[in-house]
Fold each of these.
Amino acid sequence: MSSPLNFHLEHYDGPLDLLLDLIRKQEINIYDIPIAQITAQYIEYMQRAAELSIELSAEFVYMAATLIHIKSKMLLPRDPELEKLLPEEDPRKELVDRLLEHERFKAAAEMLHQKRVIEEAVWSNPQIAQFADTEDPGLAVTLHDLVKTFQTVLERAKQRPVYEIGTEDVSVPDMIRYLRKVFEKEQTVSARELFERQRTRRGMICLFLAVLELVKLQAVGLVQKDLFGEIGLKRLPGFESAFASEQVMTAINEGYN
């Protein structure tokens, strides 16, 4: 019997946030989740929420069913001889992959939040004049808006047909080179269209990280012409200088190896 988890009934944006919190607080190896223990604690959280009249989304109920299903599959006896002929994949693998991906997004979101706080705390920027543009700058748009656009595209991608293309070796540096070619032809492109051109989730994620790198280098900026309109990526005057030194790409390559 696992000891009951002692925690305040916190608010979570989704079931993956709750599972990650349970795993990290107990220092559990995410690659070897004790599914029975975590399932019991997850359901306990849902029961406490019900007692406090806290309404949880359907995603929490679906995840509870998923955990119970995984637990039942792990409890079923497996024929040793059949295991030799046809090894069965760990029932937890898909859940672990989703948790790791979600954790990476949380880390990226936290980084963007910290960057935004720092930017808002800056009183002035002496170098801002070199990026001044005589055109209509449009509405104020932040990296947080880009993250929301990316998440929307990822959700839509779940409904797309799966392409059998084998192992994809695309990387963040590959996507930076891809964006460089795009902006050599166009001054402004739709962020949504760029993401939707990618055939896999890995391609989308690498492209998203590549955009963040170019924004950090002040090679690309974010624009939005209309309220609630699409987020655009705009080539900035510092675009060419960002690629002038080989050290830039070398540092990025090393950072993602």
Amino acid sequence: MANSTTATRSRSATKSNMETQILGRSRGWLERAADFIQRGEVVAFHTETVYGLGANAFSDEAVLKIFTLKGRPADNPLIVHVHRDYDISRLIDSEPPYAAALREKFLPGPLTMVYPSAGKVSKYVSCGMNTLAIRVPSSPVAQEFLRAVDLPIAAPSANLSKHVSPVTARHVYDDFNGKIPLILDGGACTGGIESTVLDCTGEVPRILREGLVTREMIAAVAGDCEVYHPKKGEKPKSPGMAYKHYSPRCETAYVSSAEEAIEVYDREKERGGTPCILCESGQISLLGDRNSLDLGGIGEQMAQRLYALLRKAEGTSSLLIGIEPKGKDGVMAGVLNRLRRAFGKES
């Protein structure tokens, strides 16, 4: 992992009088992070899914700072992150037997579990609801950070609201340079999309947000698993449910075939634009010499590549054209959720 590096101060950093540092494993890095958290600051950190924007979950002021920094809607709840040995009974009221079995099987890992809250953390974490979402990330950097602070850390993805989620420290820096003091760099995230969010408050576990831990995987342990489909206008029960998310800063078009993509691409090219097509590996050969980005051939690969490619496209393309992948099951359910929302489509 890289040694400590200090990011160059930008115009925005000068205005806010804050220097944003990117630190890998180096002397004093965890002490610096813990000190910032204790002082009510917000620190970005690596997880196996995406980078998180973390603050002390017990502090109203620190939690509200996350919402302000991101421009996050006030009714969009946060997830609390803890290290693997943290006693979550301090934070929740109850846990059904199936939830304990799921924790044993999948944690640490990309699964967030929603419990009845004991009301110990800031009321702003769950936006007034009586539940609490808890995650135990498997990233070594996240685990070391969480052990160093030994506090529940409220953390959404470390991007401006609705922008593409960050999978490198540089992505975080691009959104928050001069606005936060520290980014803990763990390299590129291997999972690539946010954790599965699972409601564990009922008799049967229910997926609120699909991700790398699939319905089939959960049902194999718990005996059953439902998938929740939010109603229009309903208050979100989980991050990433009710708003357009993961959006690149360029025009987008979403199509169902290579033929449609080519038509849209050629029209944009004729207008003098710089279009690009994002698609799964099997579609690339159908596009000729048109500019394209290879999303991959299987669900796990597409999840890992998606956000990095969306970030790449927004810097080079006037129009990004997405071709919907053919797979729908397993990890692909989470990939399609993020892809459709990135292109402004209902999931």
Amino acid sequence: MANLVIDIGNTALKASWCDGVTIGRTFRYQGEKMMDFILSIIEKEKPDIMVLSSLRNFSTQNINKLESCCEKLVIADRVIFEKYSIPGHLTPDRAASIIASRYLFNGRDCTIFDFGTTMTVDFIDADGNYSGGNVSLGCRMRFKALNRYAKSLPLLDTPLEITENGYNLSTSIESGVISGMMFEISGYILQHPENVNVFTGGDAIYFAKRMKNSIFVVCNLVLMGLALIAVEYDRKD
């Protein structure tokens, strides 16, 4: 049997079967029946260790149900992450990304960008110590905010391409949002030019393709961090 890691964020659920740190078959679900989806994944095969990271609360009943479906259930929470010297105020996905970055880029300073519902930027030094981080609006959230708080502006989606300067209302919004994020990202990179720049999250590839700097895109960074937690628990047993 293998381990199963599950990350439930603001928008979607991502899960993967893992053999040690190696990420295997992955799943993605966006909907309200997340518990049913998890149970469907483990219907035919029970994992040895299941690591669950979630921004949503699970009832005691559902936790008990998951515990009955695996050898060991690990809830990735503040108590777990304190053992990795990660501050308790960080969300589980950010904490898991830090664990994975320590493993992948051991001995290097890192700037970790996560492009999801929000855009988070976290820093670790060459010894793996957390040096702080920031949170701002994600790409789609910026488009939605313009539409919601400026009644005359339309709701637009992330464009495939942008012009340097907009030539009408739509292209002005598209260029303003994407260029603004690019300037923001570039600012962090210029602030720490010696750091390894790690991009993850749903929009990671979109922005990585537009960067002139050297970027490492690790789409499953959070899942890898959770897989490393599973490996640690496997060793304890």
